[in-house]
Amino acid sequence: MNIQWYPGHMVKTKRQISESLKLIDVVIELLDARAPISSKNPDIDEIISNKPKIVILNKADLADEKINKEWINFYKSINIVALDVDCITGKNINKIFPSIKNIIKNKLQKDINKGIIGRPVRALVVGIPNVGKSTFINKIANKSTAQTGDRPGVTKSKQWIKVNNEFELMDTPGILWPKFDDEMVALHLAYIKAIKEEILDIVELSIKFIDEIKKSNPNNLKDRFKIEIKDDPTEMLKDIGRKRGCIVAGSEIDMYRAANVLMEEFRIGKLGRISLETPNMIIGVE
Ligand SMILES: Nc1nc2c(ncn2[C@@H]2O[C@H](COP(=O)(O)OP(=O)(O)OP(=O)(O)O)[C@@H](O)[C@H]2O)c(=O)[nH]1
Ligand SMILES: [Mg+2]
Predict the structure, then answer these.
(1) Which of 66, 130, 155, 282 has the fewest C-beta atoms lying within 10 Å of its C-beta?
(2) Residue 201 Cα, ligand 2 centroid: separation in angstroms?
(3) Where is GTP annotated to bind (predicted)?
(4) Under CATH, domain 8-171 is a member of which superfamily?
């Protein structure tokens, strides 16, 4: 499956981030808790150069709780502060600002020593499309200033949002990178809807998804759709279609509809909490 999606606004955003960097105290890098490897833009660390950073594993409500903890411990082991967050219940949202103040405490103290008092902390929020940047900002600010949506490419330009007199956040459009060398990365980005649906073959994608999930989380598929695990994932997609009444022309399975049912149910968590990636897979990546 050849997936490419790198529109002009992403090029522009990268440039805008570089230009805004001098105003920024700290970077908040949002990753998808289900896929922290694939949802990490390899260009980001270079773009933000040596700015202090906090990693947010967002959509933690959709990922396996035990694996979320493994990830937090993993980041700790490489000296990166990370928090698992979910913008639906607001889990750990109240820990963000205290954690950031702790990360940049030396700089804040230096400012005080220089007599700079009362200047707000400015944080840049970055991440791939659809990871939840704008929702996260709205949750912290407790208002719906940033536009959100359940598809990639909603935010089109950067925007400053004032949380209070102490804290300001910059929302940015999601950015990918020009080429995915690793098929796993491309697929996982497509599963979590970081890539525009229109450029994907959803039937092919969902067959790959079944092939992966039937090994890592077979019970989620069995329990949700009341189907058996089979060697051939295409047969399993047909079974899902049959169970969900995705039928055309009398008796034929509508594979397109079955694929949409499956991917949508995964994306909103109806398939259960599924982590696509664990820290064990990162050996040699970070
Ligand atoms: N389950 C769950 N859904 C979330 C969470 N955070 C955000 N979402 C959903 O994810 C979708 C994308 O959210 P946005 O905030 O628009 O994502 P974004 O990163 O700003 O996306 P772009 O602007 O397109 O780059 C929306 O449907 C949100 O409701 C979360 O913690 N858990
Ligand atoms: Mg957005």
Answers:
(1) 66
(2) 24
(3) 58-61, 130-135, 174
(4) P-loop containing nucleotide triphosphate hydrolases (3.40.50.300)
